[in-house]
DNA sequence: CTTAGCACTCTCTGATCGAGAGTGCTAATT
DNA sequence: AATTAGCACTCTCGATCAGAGAGTGCTAAG
């Protein structure tokens, strides 16, 4: 039942666009009269109704009930997004302000990621999601052992890409900071740039302490490897709480549930990881048959970062009737910004 | 208008408790008949009504309208929480399961904090908040400089208490890992356990590189100092979305807004930081005049960690009609658990 | 002090009705 | 053949109303 460009006359496309636009604005069914009055079309409402009829038959719009205006269907939104949407670039002033915020005083990801979420939420007036970037191929970069108290040691592990993992180790006896540093240096030489597999393949050391630390390193690397995405940053919940799509009080079908269900989110992310290269934006409309909770919502997702090295996901979740033009360009813009920042500061 | 224990007869206390309990269960006004039927009181409904009348005059309960049952007032909840609530300890089996989850395979805070949020949310059926622990007196513990690419260097800064900050530095020229390590070691010796003030008081080094790095260290320490709390972990949003108190669609008065407004949250936290030692649980009912958004909600907060060294906040946010007994003991339990874990792994 | 009994008040539900919105169709027009 | 004016038709929405039911407050008796 897939429609393409050529199935519709240009007038039908205009009408569909206007219906989408108006319905996005008002959340109400759109009447033929509204269309000609508010948008100054040079045709009569009867003509519009005829066209609406065709669009209804094509399954792109529908009537909630006899004698109501029209509302875009899922299919209609898909068609709109695929063929009709025009990205509305952010005003240059806004872009500059935002860029400036990111670049000021050269902070790190822990500053950029929440900021990205906040910017996305503001620009799209929806819920934003940003995951910390994550490397697919985990490799050792650096280790540091810091004596803390008694035989307790803080291990700080830096992976290629820049992810940092920490762990407290309880050693069998007390070691001086000097000997811990020596040991760390040894690891730094031996393991630099090595993957989990390569480290596992190494001959086991005779020294039990070395063994213990190497095990801890591998442990942390495994944990990191199992992550589908890094930590999740959310923003803009309040943008969306008052919309009818999200306020739907039917207990177990709130789209916001999804945000707390890591497995589901990972599903969602995986899908985009698999189908898109960095730079492509994916728009999921109405749960696409898979996510019941997203029945009335749309998700716009993209990857950012550096392909095959360090990348994360970012996007927004909003009601299906959202301003796709704005939203898509906001997602693009923020993704590009983050990608640039990551490229500048990549740790390899 | 403060009531204390002795203002009420014990029968009145029972009736108030039952009203609170029943209203918590059903979210409906409670009728005198319901009370004697469902709780098997050995008195007549007329007597209950008389007592209800007194309680109403005392401002502890109210009628939404003539000929409706009674609902506890804010004042009523406060009295209940101060005088009548009984903590219902979690079942021993549950406690064991949870404790086990925390202690298994000795992970770190990055594992415990989300877990704490999740446990709290489950046990209280409300929204849980957990902030990463944070030290009030910032002091240098350890620095590591890791050569990454060209003249770019990753600085990893460990503070006393165990907070880790990272930053990418762009140096003027390329340094070998060895010289970077030497420099880091010098810092580790010179700055160990020093506070911001102490470091600032040191004589400035002649070496521009040393200057740059020391500036970066101070920068990060300042940033950390300015934090009221660490990162925030949330869970259990879906527990609460369907309750009438939260679904209230009046745009700008959703209690959930608060969760995204860091300044407001910090206010809330500060209040508890100031008024309570670790171990004390604070219950805010109905926004306490300060937080309009919390009009129909209650917040239960406590600190965890080690007083004056490393502590964070944790608690829940739920509808005013919540099961305070459960909630308070859940908060206590999780706080104690985290405090123990932090005590075990404190970095000093 | 407690309780049975009863009148009273207020909400809630469902039914009814008219107004209004918006369409679909038909026949006339370009 | 496409467009349009005109009109009948359908459905929703809001207001109004009545009856049932819930729950109370009061009174008078135990």
Poorly predicted runs of chain A are none
Helix content of chain A: 40-55%
Indicate the overall shape of chain A.
elongated
Q: Number of helical runs of chain A?
A: 14
Main-sheet strand order of chain A equals: 7-3-10-9-8
- What gyration radius of chain A follows from the Cα positions, in whole Å? 26 Å
Mean pLDDT figure of chain A: 91
Hey, roughly how much beta strand do the residues of chain A contain?
15-25%
Number of strands of chain A: 10
What characterizes the major β-sheet of chain A? Answer: 5 strands, antiparallel
- Which class best fits the helix and strand makeup of chain A? alpha+beta
How would you portray this structure in words?
The structure is a homodimer of 348-residue chains. With 348 residues, chain A is of the alpha+beta class. Helices cover 48% and strands 18% of the residues of chain A. Chain A has 14 helices and 10 strands. Chain A has helices at residues 10-26, 32-39, 45-57, 74-84, 92-103, 109-124, 177-191, 196-201, 208-226, 237-241, 244-247, 257-260, 262-275, 324-345; strands spanning 61-62, 71-72, 127-131, 140-149, 152-159, 164-170, 232-235, 281-285, 297-306, 310-319. In chain A, strands 7-3-10-9-8 form a 5-stranded antiparallel sheet, sandwiched between helices. In chain A, strand 4 (140-149) and strand 5 (152-159) form a beta hairpin. In chain A, helix 1 (10-26) crosses helix 3 (45-57), helix 1 crosses helix 4 (74-84) and helix 6 (109-124) runs antiparallel to helix 14 (324-345). Chain A is elongated. The mean pLDDT of chain A is 91. The interface between A and B is large, with 43 and 43 residues. Chain A binds a DNA duplex (30 and 30 nucleotides) through residues 29, 31-33, 43-47, 49-50, 52-53, 63-69.
């Amino acid at each position: 039942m897939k429609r393409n460009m050529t199935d519709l006359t240009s007038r039908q496309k205009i009408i569909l666009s206007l219906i989408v636009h108006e319905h996005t604005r008002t959340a109400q069914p759109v009447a033929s009269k509204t269309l000609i009055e508010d948008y100054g079309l040079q045709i009569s409402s009867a003509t519009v109704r005829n066209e609406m009829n065709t669009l209804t038959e094509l399954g792109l719009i529908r009537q909630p009930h006899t004698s109501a205006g029209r509302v875009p269907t899922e299919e209609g939104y898909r068609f709109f997004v695929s063929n009709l949407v025009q990205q509305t670039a952010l005003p240059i002033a806004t872009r500059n302000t935002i860029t400036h915020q990111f670049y000021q005083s050269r902070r790190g990801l822990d500053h950029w990621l929440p900021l990205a979420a906040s910017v996305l939420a503001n620009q799209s007036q929806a819920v934003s999601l940003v995951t910390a970037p994550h490397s697919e191929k985990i490799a050792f970069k650096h280790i540091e052992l810091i004596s803390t108290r008694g035989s307790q040691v803080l291990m700080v592990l830096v992976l290629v890409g820049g992810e940092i993992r920490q762990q407290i180790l309880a050693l069998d006896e007390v070691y001086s900071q000097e000997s811990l540093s020596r040991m760390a240096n040894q690891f730094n030489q031996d393991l630099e740039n090595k993957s989990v597999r390569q480290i596992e393949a190494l001959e086991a050391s005779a020294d039990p302490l070395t063994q213990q630390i190497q095990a801890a390193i591998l442990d942390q690397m495994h944990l990191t490897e199992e992550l589908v995405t890094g930590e999740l940053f959310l923003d803009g919940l309040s943008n969306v709480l008052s919309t009818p799509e999200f306020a739907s009080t039917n207990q177990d079908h709130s789209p916001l549930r999804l945000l707390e269900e890591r497995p589901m989110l990972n599903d969602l992310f995986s899908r985009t990881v698999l189908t898109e290269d960095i730079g492509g934006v994916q728009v999921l409309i109405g749960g696409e048959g898979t996510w019941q909770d997203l029945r009335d919502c749309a998700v716009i997702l993209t990857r950012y970062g550096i392909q095959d090295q360090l990348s994360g996901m970012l996007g927004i979740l909003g009601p299906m009737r959202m301003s796709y033009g704005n939203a898509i360009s906001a997602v693009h813009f923020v993704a590009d910004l983050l990608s640039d920042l990551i490229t500048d500061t990549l740790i390899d």
